[in-house]
Amino acid sequence: MYLKKLSLYGFKSFAGRVDLDLTPGIVGVVGPNGVGKSNISDALRWAMGEQSARLLRGSKMQDVIFAGSLSRRGLGYAEVSLVFDNSDQFLNIGFDEVTVTRKVYRSGDAEYLLNSVPCRLRDIVDLFSGTGLGREAYSVVEQGKIDAVLSARPEDRRSLFDEAS
Amino acid sequence: MYLKKLSLYGFKSFAGRVDLDLTPGIVGVVGPNGVGKSNISDALRWAMGEQSARLLRGSKMQDVIFAGSLSRRGLGYAEVSLVFDNSDQFLNIGFDEVTVTRKVYRSGDAEYLLNSVPCRLRDIVDLFSGTGLGREAYSVVEQGKIDAVLSARPEDRRSLFDEAS
Amino acid sequence: CAKQFTQTFEAIRDEFSEIFQDVFGGGTADLVLDDPGNPLECGVEIVCQPPGKKLASLTLLSGGEKALAAIALLFAIMRVKPSPVCVLDEIDSALDEANVARFVELLRDVSRSVQVIIVTHRKRTMECADTLFGVTMEESGVSKVFSIRASDYRL
Amino acid sequence: CAKQFTQTFEAIRDEFSEIFQDVFGGGTADLVLDDPGNPLECGVEIVCQPPGKKLASLTLLSGGEKALAAIALLFAIMRVKPSPVCVLDEIDSALDEANVARFVELLRDVSRSVQVIIVTHRKRTMECADTLFGVTMEESGVSKVFSIRASDYRL
Ligand SMILES: Nc1ncnc2c1ncn2[C@@H]1O[C@H](COP(=O)(O)OP(=O)(O)OP(=O)(O)O)[C@@H](O)[C@H]1O
Ligand SMILES: Nc1ncnc2c1ncn2[C@@H]1O[C@H](COP(=O)(O)OP(=O)(O)OP(=O)(O)O)[C@@H](O)[C@H]1O
Ligand SMILES: [Mg+2]
Ligand SMILES: [Mg+2]
User: Fold this and answer.
1) CB–CB of D100/D69 below 8 Å?
2) Which of A34, A58, A69 sits opposite D64 (nearest CB)?
3) B128 sits in which H/E element
4) CB-defined contacts B:D, below 8 A
5) What is the DSSP letter of B54?
6) Pocket-testing residue among A9, A12, A46, A54, ligand 1, by greatest number of atoms within 8 A of Cβ
7) What is the pLDDT of residue A135?
8) What digits encode the pLDDT tens for the residues C34-73?
9) Which residues of B touch C96 (CB under 8 A)?
10) What's the CA gap between A159 and C40, in Å, rounded?
């Protein structure tokens, strides 16, 4: 399984719709300071079910919605879709392509979709559980946090090993 | 006033005696990972009176004494001297050159010297107080801590401004 | 469950020790359970000894040594239990040039079984990417993404 | 004492706003007392708005923007109350090439009144040093220092 496509609309600094077509192997993301690179990594964590606004560098979940710039007004909602190539049936759900979509509105209402069918957050968390993806996972390392695993207390490091077994 | 010379003996990875002759302006320190660059910055904080072993990346003050390597045995004490050019009488103590020395022994005993005359820690702290140097100062920024002032709580930022007034 | 945890733990431990020696060019590293009699609850100690140095507590390691040791542990876990996708945001920023080169070797190896999305400012890391995206803000405050042809960034 | 604190605070505030606009090439920055009626006890809020962007909370700034804003504040304090010596350990590691160049301009300016000892891996920062020391561990675990002639590192 690998991530084939990432689509962003209204997520943080991505005011307009942006699509990234990805390949297996190593995908590099480069650019000057402050242009939105870490926002892409946040978009991935968010779409995979992240519930903590603080881990997304905000204070409430609506902080991920494009707040506007000096030339544009803010938007009413944010939407991120992840399209996985599942032809190896890594996710045992009988589809060759799996699309996970998450939306949040200014009101705070949230929507989750699995292959365009509305579902609950629980369904997405279950889908990813045990794969190393999703909320507790070791698969997303935030900027400046690489040595967090070394500075954590021994009992806090456990979750890394639990997730992997 | 500026720092004219820094001498290290037995401090962290500096097993042998090392002297750095410095100039005013910008002094660069470069080298590969793990060779002892940040240990130089620790030596400066220590000689200026730093009392927290944790801020020096150790757990007790004796951790600053050269602990040995695969080819050398550990040493019995660490010593750092700072020689300031004070010809502008920035430190109002009547000397054109001011040398501050700090020593610590395996036993935990510490010695402080001001122009080679034994003194107390208190004397060194008083010497630097209000200059921006020394313990609470804004003049040493540790590795990875530049944005600490931004993430601190508003009431914790005060000490920066208090020190400067 | 305890059996499965211990099996995974031992496999990660072996990989960690091997990768550590690879990227540090020697030295030793190990993972130790605080209380082996109680594997499902206890904490995990990490022990690192860079080459030629005495065993030091983790806090005495340098910034670059800590980052490299943490990278070795992350990739050890990835080898034992690869997740399909892994997102790494500037994990190479504390490394010197020689260590970036070793990191890139390791990255190429891991990317055979894991898709890695990596944000970086280091040229050597960019050069090893199979696909490269540039992010810009031509209009202030609004992010756009464009793809960069391999010939433009591979030397 | 309150009068002295407020005077220093206002001077730092002015410098911070000026330096911020310099290094960011625009935008605005400010320092605000939580409770101006009680200047000797209250906290200090930092407000930053990079050019072209709406006012964002500090936590939404990027890694490089945060480092640059913190550098602007540090150098603002140094301009108002210079300490004789300042030690900076890899404060440029999160900055992109263009921001390192702006940082170096600022560093040159501050070093007229403050001696700056700076640890760095960035070439542009090394090039602006008046004196450069290399640190090595020819013998593993044992640090030595040698001085580098200007002609060897200035391009
Ligand atoms: N909801 C939002 N609406 C509009 N802009 C936002 C929103 N959330 C964050 N931003 C903007 O995104 C920018 C930060 O982007 P990001 O952290 O991705 O930068 P980066 O490319 O990772 O930079 P660096 O190289 O410095 O780490 C900030 O300037 C911030 O103001
Ligand atoms: N008391 C001690 N005795 C011997 N060696 C020590 C002692 N304390 C620290 N060290 C060693 O010093 C080394 C770290 O040095 P330092 O943190 O200065 O590296 P650095 O040059 O700043 O590297 P980086 O570029 O990765 O930040 C470690 O390998 C550590 O083992
Ligand atoms: Mg970033
Ligand atoms: Mg260091």
Assistant:
1) no
2) A34
3) helix B121-128
4) 220
5) G
6) A12
7) 64
8) 898 888 888 899 999 999 998 888 989 999 999 999 999 9
9) 32-33
10) 10
